Amino acid sequence: MNDVAVLEIGIQAMWVATKVAAPILVMALGIGLFVGLMQSVTQIQEVTLTFVPKFVGIAFVFAVGGNWMLNEIVTFTRVLFESIPSLLG
Prior knowledge:
Layout lengths: L2 H40 L5 H35 L1 H5 L1
Protein name: Flagellar biosynthesis protein FliQ
Keywords: Cell membrane, Cell projection, Cilium, Flagellum, Membrane, Transmembrane, Transmembrane helix
Organism: Euzebya pacifica
């Protein structure tokens, strides 16, 4: 196993992590921006007001895209385990 293979596996792992985390982060960012804007307009500064919509939005993302996320992670892991013999020999 050489350094190029290690770097390639690391880049693939970061790419899969980015693809899986992006929908969750975008949803949390969008909801946080919207709630923050509404809090500044209405001058209601309640901490729990930001938590509940983010929680619901992230739960929605998991419900809709959870199967795809899990499939991406399992596929990457399966390919990685299948490539072990070629990496060692």
